[in-house]
Amino acid sequence: MSEPTKSENTGASIPAQAGPAQAGPGKGGAAGGKGGERVASLWSDAWTDLRRSPLFLIGGFLVLFMVLLAVVPQLFTDANPRAGGFCNLADSLKRPSGSHWFGFDVQGCDIYTRTIWGARNSIIVGLVTTTLVVLVGGALGLWAGWIGGVGDSVLSRVTEIFFAIPLLLGGMLIMSTWGEGNAWTVSAVMAVLGWPQIYRLMRSAVLANKHNDYVVAARALGAGTGRIVGRHILPNAVAPVIVVSTINLGVYIGAEAALSYLGIGIQSPAISWGLMISDAQARFLNAPHVLLFPAAVLSITVLAFIMLGDAVRDALDPKLR
């Protein structure tokens, strides 16, 4: 048997576990090549690149910080915007100061505290929507790409219908007839509109990988469908899904803010950056701080997820190396 050779990364079609392990339960295993040498893989190379990427480090830090804001806002402020006496009309539109960094809104509520607590709904919408889109679109794309046939044709026509509906316009239409909105209903609506993109990515990646030599070898050695799909197809098809989903997470946060700004997304008394921006628009000329601070935090959050997605794309796409 000839010695296995190392191949350069050429895209998502490269096996996630190089070496004899891809061909089945033969001798050798995935530990490496001759003499115990570790065989490089797309994922290990990508992680090495990510650790050296300033874009990934900055974006990852900002994302972790925003998630921490959403999960434990008490770490950053002692005040609770839902507590009685939090807002005082006597403080209406007061400018930022040393004790109140972001100033007060028109109702006399501390903008800093509301901005911190508003991160929860925005992050929930982004994470829940992305999770639902990946689970639904990924599962359907995996099934359609592997099985094909009539089911694949029907799903492909359905996705074409959804692609004709812009995300924001479709969200406005559905939410305007839904009634009162919250983070969960907004997430459900955007997931319904967003899954076709992930479906197409997963389906095309499966079609590109299922006829590769390592899949044919695994089938020849007697591997079942579940093993082939789980061990060989899915790990090599998921890379583009991860990249697009990371970028889209920021897009969903921005879309939630837009819907809330228009009054058809998250509704009061819930706190959302979009709601804060909507409430502040009429006071922008005489009190710009009311709008600037929540808008700046929203922009930084969306930018952080886009930076993270760009870094992951650069690491997983060998054409950009």
UniProtKB/TrEMBL annotation:
Gene3D superfamilies: MetI-like. SUPFAM superfamilies: MetI-like. It is a multi-pass membrane protein. InterPro entries: BP-dependent_transpt_permease, MetI-like, MetI-like_sf, OppC_N. Residues 25-34 have a biased composition (Gly residues). Its main location: membrane. The chain crosses the membrane at residues 55-76, 123-146, 158-178, 233-253, 290-309. It is found in: Cell membrane. Residues 1-34 are annotated as: Disordered. The keyword Glycoprotein does not apply. Pfam families: BPD_transp_1, OppC_N. Keywords: Cell membrane, Membrane, Transmembrane, Transmembrane helix, Transport. Coiled coil: none annotated. Residues 119-309 form the ABC transmembrane type-1 domain. Belongs to the binding-protein-dependent transport system permease family. This is ABC transporter permease. It comes from Kitasatospora misakiensis.
